[in-house]
Write a structure and sequence with these properties.
2 strands; globular; 410 residues; Ammonium_transpt_CS (chains A, B, C); homotrimer; Ammonium transporter fold
């Protein structure tokens, strides 16, 4: 392959890396905006530390777990060493036609922390900081790369007779976070005041402009998340992915707008925001496989699903302050299955493979996050004291306020 | 043409696409910051829905209206079909030397919603949501692409003996939004309390940091808006455009700073912010035609003009909460005419062509937005009730507050 | 060299330019978030005007001072003219293999304002606007490019027998800002209420979400700051720089987290944020020279240093509201010296050259900023009146409030 195309590919992959990086600010802003002012420092602290944690653990062990190569290749688990050791020809097309070794690492590393940032939203406003960071360390450093290997590292989901397909991670990334979010929110129990005898109380987010910033930055970053998952700058595929991604996000907004208007008779901006994200999560598994109209349908359904999912989890009394489970788990499952229904791969056997992938990842993530959260719950405890929760985690965990100059209503 | 240059061009155009996308967050943040806390959800809702609407309508009809090709080519109106149908060789340089079909579509689609996001600022804090969304649907989906075709689709403005010149859309994009903003703000009338017997009252924006975020993101995105309008990665032209764009924005800040200091004897940050935008709007028509000093002059004058325009529209009692008309209409006209005065194309005949373009677009946009807004005013009504306006649109239209944890002064 | 590689390089340099541009929003958001609500307009005003000022002065004189070429080449001072005059072959690889003349200019111009935005944080909440803008004009327009020439323009630091090494500007950019910040903060004296008889009072920032936005945007931009300093799209070097930069920032977060937990027994988000920045500043001098583990060590130490530096400057009663001196001066010195200790250049003679560079730049910046600030202090005055400071600079300097709709505690 010629040096020019290699260099172009690598430039695009680096741009995609930067875009995925800024998604961490997107998550931080979104989760901050959709929770209460008294827990703002806490949520921001977590969403600042997790990307840093993700980069370091991914360099130390995650990348080697996810791409073990011939060492224990395929199957369920492999590890090619610790730390980053440069293969020969690491900065040439001998390593890959699309990127250098370091570009490969850093692009993948930016994804890693996502698994925990998704969880952080669902467990917000009541989880203890230490246990959450320990969960993140293991979930991001060990669990996520193992699941990733199953497909992207050439593991058993990639070697099914009809291989499981997950282009950029509806299952491999988003549902991994979503399952952890579900377990965490369930084991923690709902926030004080969320479910009372008189029914469910909405606890509104304290800063909607921040939530809007978050969603737009996530959408912005998704051009790198999906666009970079082409693993080259191939003009046709990347530009197709841009269109399917954009259209699915846009349709997700309308799916949620319509569903929430029919259900609640109001124009609910948080539903629209989550609808956009659900559309984006939904297209992620098949962004390179769909026609434009199919991406619109996938987004529309994803956006509508998020509204029903939020209501559903509320009924189950699983308290998810930001809607992360509805967006990333429900949206992720929907998007993964959609690859069996729409697009170039649609077939019954593909649908079955998609189901297998969803189930295998689900079981692994449910079990591992259960072990982590339940183990801590029964030992060190995972929930702050009632008084700390009422006062807010910013004071109890950080001795600071996010907005000390403003008068609050609390 | 060789595949390497085609791929590079396409990468640049995709980066430019992403940059234009994030301008929608820029508009959302700016307009949110410059209006009142009680209308924040409403303005953010509109600025979130409009880009989604723009993407979908542009895919369905806008792109075909704007680039009808041989179907009814040239002239005033053409339509090449509905939806996106892939031409042969869509992902090769046979389609275009600078981009694939999908890159072409998505870059243009990101521009489309701008026409309505500009309007949303001028009509903020008193327009009904439903009518505004209907206006946006038609204005973005139909009106904007028709005007765009006149120049960029090979229409009559492009075939004048001295062709009208509008590099990236001072007229085709910004003034289209500006004319709609003028009509909307005029037909709605001023906000309650803006003009009283004792004179004009400034109604300050509620969150200046958001406004600053907005302007910087718009400037950031403008590198894609203008830089992508080169339609290739040609090193000389794109880098020239970067310099003229940056210098005009910077000079716009000083133009507004000087004019507002002379006029009001204060350092008014909102004027400086709008001055930057006016400088950027001003250079947009001729960003590839100007020398560095000319871009500085254009920006300086654009920035100063915005100050006088704000005062002028206040005198006319046209209430534009964010200064959108001054920035996008006045700045857009100035920039368009400047192509006849400065730069490589400067000539009397060019100036006349620029005037023709400004006037033709102005008449079409005034008439079409008048029909839309006036038609709705006389039927469903376009303005919320007095009590709703006083209470804030967040409650009356969305039953939510943007900052429920904070004590407000209202 | 072939046109394809030239075009790719130029695309990457333009992307890097845009990324460095958005760092100015990062500085604005960070400094706004870490100061008080009553001084928000003022800090945003400065951070909006300075980039504009930087672009214009760099076009007028800075670029020619920094890269004087043969005119008075080398040594301590040179000037190749005023304004931008296009050399022959400016848009071809005859000018440079990595970029056109205009790309060269605009990439460098985006760096220029940084010197003053760093200062603005340290002198915040008490400096008069006019004197600060005058300082910025001279410091950005004259002092920064002179220092820059010493190394990047081929001056005496570049021609030492073992040349001083500063890849992207730990000394040339960050410490230049840091020295100015130190002098400014010292000559102004502390804010009212910061140091009282009973000891030091923390004056908390008013909007931590803004600070988080600022740090993430700075990190985001750093991929262009460091990645663009490769001056080409060379896949191996740029991707290495991405990894070292990311790892150093991540390690900086943990360095500050550990140090601040040990010292204060709390999870202090502002320390973590400044730790990230210190890690990034620290790696900047040698981002292309370090192994991954070395970048982690440099970041870790940089992050820890920031905690001790903040305490140290508090003891000296140098009041730096945002920690700019600790981040940019201490971090910059550390990163510069680290090039003599770690990485491919590590040697005793390199360490001495690094010391010489740090000292030479330090002396020049201390003297020049002392002359500027002290001269103004003894004539026009640099500090607002006590009553203005108590009331807040937004009212006294701008007659506006940043958040007029909210009830504040002041």
């Amino acid at each position: 392959m010629n040096q020019e195309i290699f260099t172009i590919n690598n430039v695009w992959m680096m741009v995609a890396t930067i875009l995925v990086f800024i998604m961490h600010l997107g998550f931080a802003a979104l989760e901050c905006g959709l929770t209460r002012a008294k827990n703002t420092i806490n949520i921001l602290f977590k969403n600042t530390i997790i990307p840093a944690l993700g980069l370091l653990t991914y360099a130390f062990i995650g990348f080697n777990l996810m791409y073990p190569g011939d060492v224990f290749s395929g199957g369920f688990l492999g590890l090619s060493g610790l730390g980053l050791s440069l293969p020969e020809g690491w900065d040439t097309s001998a390593y890959s036609e699309g990127y250098t070794f370091f570009t490969d690492f850093i692009f993948q590393a930016m994804f890693a922390a996502t698994a925990a940032t998704i969880v952080s939203g669902a467990v917000a406003e009541r989880i203890k900081l230490g246990p959450f960071l320990f969960f993140s360390l293991i979930y991001v450093g060990i669990c996520y790369p193992i699941v990733g290997m199953w497909k992207w590292g050439g593991g058993f989901l990639d070697t099914l007779s009809t291989p499981f397909y997950d282009f950029a991670g509806s299952t491999i990334v988003h549902s991994v976070g979503g399952w952890g979010a579900l377990v965490g929110a369930y084991l923690l129990g709902p926030r004080i005041g969320k479910f009372t005898e008189r029914g469910m109380n909405a606890i509104p987010g304290h800063n909607i402009p921040m939530a809007v910033i978050g969603v737009f930055l996530l959408w912005f970053g998704w051009f790198g998340f999906n666009g970079g998952s082409v693993l080259s700058a191939d003009p046709g595929t990347v530009s197709l992915v841009f269109v399917t991604t954009s259209i699915a996000g846009a349709a997700g907004a309308f799916g949620a707008l319509i569903a929430s208007y029919l259900k609640f008779k109001s124009y609910d901006i948080t539903m629209v925001l989550n609808g956009i994200l659900a559309g984006l999560v939904g297209i992620t598994a098949g962004a390179d496989q769909m026609a434009v109209w199919e991406s619109a349908v996938i987004g529309l359904i994803g956006g509508a699903l998020v509204v029903f999912a939020v209501v559903f989890f509320d009924r189950l009394k699983v308290d998810d302050p930001v809607g992360a489970i509805s967006v990333h788990l429900v949206g992720g499952i929907w998007g993964t299955l959609a690859v069996g229904i729409f697009g170039d791969l649609a077939s019954f056997s593909q649908f079955i493979s998609q189901l297998i992938g969803v189930a295998a990842v689900g079981v692994f993530c449910l079990v591992s996050s259960w072990i982590l959260f339940y183990g801590m719950k029964k030992t060190v405890g995972i929930r702050v004291h009632e008084q700390e929760e009422v006062e807010g985690l910013d004071i109890s965990e950080h001795s600071m306020r996010a907005y000390p100059d403003f008068a609050t209503k609390e």
